[in-house]
Design goal:
single chain; 161 residues; mainly alpha; 7 helices; elongated; Pra-immunoreactive; membrane
Amino acid sequence: MTQTDTIISTAPAGFDDWRLFEGVRTRRVLAFAVDYALVILLVALAVPVVGLLGVVTFGIAWLLYAVLAPLVALSYIAWTVGGPEQATLGMRMAGIRLVRYDGQPIDWMTAIVHAVLFWAANVILTPFIVLVALFTRHKRLLHDLALGTTVVRTERFLAVA
């Protein structure tokens, strides 16, 4: 028995229902596009705020520009995926959510690590990491495998849970 089999065997009842994962790949891509647009909008709103803070702090706050985009993106992920809905706004629109195989809720730290692993895998392996979902059980990506998480259809998951 491999480690993956152990994780899957300890998954809550109902994870073997294929309907939980129907259309998840497409919905995940759409959710990513919506979330990317929202983060860009949030960064655009934060830029003038940091500019004004820089004037008030005699330029010290302008140092935030170097980390503004990652700070906004990670805050957005922690707040949404780490919140009670377990999904970003794009994921909610697509009708999907992130869940853990051990049944525990996603906390803000797991949400941040999930995002950081996704971007690190993208930098190292290019966008071809998305192809992993074609060959893994439950359409999981590398960062899902590393954290014991998966993305499911929200309405079907709540009906099973």
